[in-house]
């Protein structure tokens, strides 16, 4: 089945939803979810970039003759990006845990000792 | 010696990276062993940065290449290929210049920390993160590959936020850590999206290859917009500066200086993208004016926000934000006129680039001095300080040197670079120079206020004495840099700043040609 540009549209929507969540939600955990959504959108975009219709996994050993392969580089980029995303999400969530411990809330309107 | 110089680019990244993961192990042997190890790694890294700079500036800033995973470190294209597929480090005058700044700040920062961190817990984590941040900053400055740039950008983001927030018992550091990490992540994702857009069009990630292939299509412009937003955010330019005072203010004092070096590395990435990656494929005049507007906003907002602060570190942090504006102003003026390439455009660039080094030295000095003050008084509130000059004579002199340099008072180094920026931006439009000069005067007023509040007045009882020798030596070293660059600006501009500016202003073909051959 040919899905055309649909993955790109989905990726763009994910990025837009993520940025919306990041800008307009008040809960720290929801902000982390927003950041994660942007990240997922970017990762989906990268994977889609490398996709070729009907392509097989880019492994040369025992590859069938005259088959199309998807591009390997974007997959490598995506893997790296997922690992980095894991680290940033973990760090953000642990900050959220400590903020909750200190301030007793996750509401950004109440976590604002640093102003001006 | 040549072998060491040849391998210096990769060693600059590998040594601190190795150090970062070895510090927790060596920390088990005790504090002395750990500090000796950290000092050794920092010193050897700085020595390699000096070696690299000496070799690059010895060839007047011509780019040199380091290829990882090939059968020789100088062969960019595997036989029969026209696309560089390996991981490349490409160092030209600008990269070597940035490496010098990073080496200066991380070395003095590490040595300052030994004394600053004495008797406090968490030191091992702290040094580990410092080494990781050092490796990341060097990586950003030396890499010749857009995706590697993104990876190193994220390495610095994570390490920097670790340094801001690793003292989990402090309420405000957690708030700052969350805010900075969230914005850094977004900035990194913008960069990654732009890298994806460029890869999708040209099928390459190498900066030189992409620069040779770029056509200036609409998608390229979108990618440029994303890169500009992401890197300006990470550099702390207004209106994306809201994380910067929190980050610089809440990090431990010696690390605030390293965070400024990190912001400068993002600024370097921005300049690399504008001059080397895009060059003249886009309408540079419009972009130059965008940078100039960002610069004026940054200068103005930074200085006026510094005016109303009562927290000494937050005040210096806003001063640091405003200085990013001067760098952007110098380079923005250069970019705005880079089609015709008149003489004053080159001078503006010299001013902007020279100011990076000057700012690193004097902001570093100010943050170190603030660390010494906070250690002696136990508070960051300016209203609760006073009379420190009685007990801390040397610190007060050093603070004054840093403050005068930051505000651009002759004969200190801030004046040398700001004068070049005033002169050149005046030729483009007198209005720019007026804003820049007025803001500098305002900044001087701010620091006179700080000096009066913290150092002058009656002696207060119960304060600690003068900063210990371990803090004094790094501060004096930076003060010597400040004074030397202020007294002999011509000497340093000719030897290191001009090759760096040449690399951006004229060096695009050489940068591309080195990788693709012939160009």
Present the secondary structure layout.
The complex is a heterodimer of chains A (116) and B (519).
Chain A: H1 6-24, H2 28-50, H3 72-103
Helix pairs in contact in A: 1-2, 2-3
Chain B: H1 2-26, H2 31-58, E1 64-68, E2 87-91, H3 93-116, H4 123-142, H5 146-165, H6 171-202, H7 207-213, H8 218-235, H9 244-250, H10 253-278, H11 284-307, H12 312-336, H13 343-377, H14 388-391, H15 393-407, H16 413-428, H17 430-454, H18 469-487, H19 489-505, H20 508-516
- Proportion of residues in helical segments of chain A: 55-70%
Radius of gyration of chain A: 19 Å
* Helix share bin of chain B: over 70%
What is the CA-atom radius of gyration of chain B, in angstroms? 22 Å
Number of E strands of chain A: 0
Main sheet: strand order of chain B: 1-2
Q: Please tally the helical runs of chain A, counting DSSP H or I stretches of 4 or more residues.
A: 3
- What structural category characterises the helix and strand content of chain B? mainly alpha
Number of strands of chain B: 2
Helix-strand pattern of chain A? HHH
Average pLDDT of chain B:
91
Largest sheet of chain B: 2 strands, antiparallel
Biggest sheet statistics of chain A: none
Low-confidence stretches of chain B: none
Task: Give a brief description.
The complex is a heterodimer of chains A (116) and B (519). Chain A is mostly helical and 116 residues long.
Textual characterization of the structure:
The complex is a heterodimer of chains A (116) and B (519). By secondary structure, chain A is mostly helical. Chain A has one domain: Helix Hairpins. Chain A has 3 helices and no strands. The mean pLDDT of chain A is 89. Chain B has 519 residues and is mainly alpha-helical. Chain B has a domain of 204 residues. In chain B, helix 2 runs antiparallel to helix 3 and helix 3 packs across helix 19. The two termini of chain B are 30 Å apart. The chains are: A mainly alpha (116), B mainly alpha (519). At the A-B interface, helix 1, helix 2 and helix 3 of A face helix 5, helix 6 and helix 9 of B.
